[in-house]
Write a structure and sequence with these properties.
alpha/beta; 5-stranded parallel β-sheet; 9 helices; 38% helix; elongated
Length: 213
């Protein structure tokens, strides 16, 4: 049995995580924590969870996080950008895994993170030590031949698992296709262009098809 907890209990993301975890019978919810809604049942803020969870929201304090980490195998955290590091330090010190469903480890390059989020990153080392678990799972799925549509900013990951990479910008779309030895045929270009037109509403002139071998 995997014991898990959530930080950021009243947020939409936590509600969705708990809703999905209902179907994972090998998991058991320990605690939910937040600075808002303390003392409320989790189902008060996420009505869809009624009948599945009866946990009461605990105050998000260092002591409560530490005690929760001791009882949990993993803590999933959904807090504002820049706030993950201080809680992660406490959780990891108790030998408990942490899954950040926010933005603090979204970029390996801290300079890029600080540019987009407009603040100094609280823990640059964390961005290098973190394991990007969803790409890890998707690598295995890709090896098994599963058809997927993946949105990512990790271009190394995209090149590794995809046979088609689409670069999207405000004024157009570039589709990079790995074609193998035969190359693209006229009907292939037309089909790809039609798909991109339908999905984006762009004109054919804005769509560029490029081949790579």
């Amino acid at each position: 049995m995997i014991h898990y907890s959530c930080i950021g209990a009243t947020g939409y993301v936590c509600g969705e995580v708990l809703r999905m975890m209902v179907n994972h019978h090998e998991g058991e919810l320990v605690n939910v924590l937040d600075t808002y809604g303390v003392g409320d049942a989790i189902s008060t803020h996420h009505p869809a969870l009624r009948g599945f969870y009866d946990q009461v929201i605990m105050d998000l304090t260092e002591e409560n996080v530490r005690e929760t980490a001791k009882k949990s195998d993993v803590i999933m955290i959904q807090v504002p950008s820049g706030d993950v590091a201080k809680w992660a330090e406490i959780v990891l010190a108790e030998d408990c895994a942490i899954i950040d469903i926010g933005a603090d480890i979204r970029f390996r390059d801290v300079d890029v993170w600080e540019k987009w989020y407009g603040q100094k990153h609280p823990d640059a080392k964390m961005t290098h030590d973190a394991v990007y678990c969803i790409p890890e799972v998707m690598r295995d799925l890709a090896k098994d031949g599963m058809t997927m549509v993946v949105v990512t900013h990790e271009m190394g990951f995209a090149r590794e698992v995809a046979d088609r990479v689409v670069f999207m910008s405000e004024d157009g779309v570039s589709v990079v296709v790995s074609t193998g030895e035969e190359g693209l045929q006229t009907e292939d270009i037309a089909r790809i262009t039609d798909i991109v037109k339908q999905e984006t509403g762009l004109s054919a002139e804005s769509i560029k098809i490029m081949e790579v071998n």
